[in-house]
Amino acid sequence: MTTAVVYDPLYLEHDYPGHPESSSRLRAIVKALDASEMWKRVSKVDAQPISLARLHRVHAPRYVDAVRRGAESGGASWRGGETYVGRRSYDAALLAAGGLTGLVEAVQQGKVNNGFALVRPPGHHASAEEGEGFCLFNNIAIAARAARDELGAQRVLIVDIDLHHGQGTQYIFQDDPSVLYFSTHQWGIYPGTGRYDDVGVGAGQGFTVNVPLTPGAGDQMYLAILDELLFPVARRFSPDLILVSAGFDTYWSDPLGSMLVTVSGYGEITKRLAQLADELCAGRLVFTLEGGYNHDALAHGVLAVLNGLLGASIADPLGPPRFTERAIDRDYLTLLRKLHGLV
Fold first, then answer.
1. How far is CA 263 from CA 38, 53, 132, 299, 302, in A?
2. Is the confidence at residue 74, as pLDDT, over 90?
3. Cα–Cα distance for residue pair 85/225, rounded to 1 Å
4. How many C-beta atoms surround the C-beta of residue 213 within 10 A?
5. The predicted structure's pLDDT at residue 80
6. What is the dihedral of CA 165, 167, 173, 175, to 10 degrees?
7. Which one, of 179, 171, 173, 183, lies nearest residue 155 by Cα?
8. How much is the mean pLDDT over the chain?
9. How far lies 133's CA from each of 26, 125, 150, 210, in Å?
10. Residue pair 151/40 in contact by the 8 Å Cβ criterion
11. CB-side exposure of 145: number of CA atoms within 13 Å?
12. What are the catalytic residues?
């Protein structure tokens, strides 16, 4: 099995001192991969900037131009009040979208089995017309559309395991039955979207699955959601490719969240998704980096995912949470299964 990683030092040059989504996040990951010698166990796909043709399939040209002009101004400008555009942000964002899309292309062409795009800025909050939530271009939406339009994937499943609902991704595909968007996210925090009964619109009705969660959900609840909701929905959809918005801000001590997922949990989630990909789409599975703001957890979480993709054992040097996770909410799972026609 060949697992590939996309990474480029340019991703570090999108930076703003003191901001939660800073280059130090990716530096922590690279340091952990160096220390574990993970680089020797994975192949590398070089990142190339996304073409404007591919970018404009998702984002309005006037918005793309606004990001470019913000970078060319030389100082930090802001989108949505919290998303910065620095001098190299436009270039980094083009390379982030291009890096993930290039990895998807390698998987679709059979050059590698699966992989992880260690890219930034992240993407799942960016809509067609605007960036927000620390995101400039919606990397996973751009890659999904390229996979569908150019790379032979008729149906794409996007699984979003970030703490925050990826409203940008949902809105881009909410009327598109060729892309199934499945999101687990903490309810009651930014961006305030992703109700459980928000299931898509028009031709896309039934192709959005939202699983908002209250604080305290941990490994067991997340795995139950995959086993009892995602798996049957995915089997019915029968994707040709699975993409994952991989946020690690569901970790039990992340400063922005109240979930109780562990490093071991990320590894188990990966193994489940790899099994699903093996069953449904010849193992074609690609992760892309989204959130995660506890740097140790972020770094070890990425290692857990990579080991899961490689079929290797998963170590959890950070240990269990200091709090007790909530029991699996069977009534809630039953409600969701009924809503999506599974019972």
1. 16, 38, 27, 10, 9
2. no
3. 36
4. 22
5. 87
6. 110
7. 179
8. 97
9. 17, 6, 29, 19
10. no
11. 20
12. 125
Total residues belonging to the chain: 343
Report the alpha-carbon angle 32-34-40, nearest 5.
125
Nearest to 103 by CA among 56, 60, 45: 45
Cα 49 from chain centroid?
A: 19
pLDDT category, 75, cuts 50, 70, 90?
Answer: confident
pLDDT at 1 over 80: no
The CA distance from 44 to 42, in Å, is: 7
> Could you give the C-alpha distances from 211 to 53, 71, 144, 179, in angstroms and in order?
33, 36, 21, 17
Query: Would the pTM of this model clear 0.90, i.e. be above it?
Result: yes
Residue 59 pLDDT greater than 90, yes or no:
yes
Per-residue pLDDT, 192 = 98
When pLDDT is averaged across residues 43-51 and rounded to a whole number, the result is 98
Cα–Cα distance, 219 to 201 (Å, whole number): 31
In angstroms, the Cα distances linking 138 to 25, 109, 253 are 19, 23, 27
- Segment 188-197 mean pLDDT: 98
The one-letter amino acid code at 95 reads: L
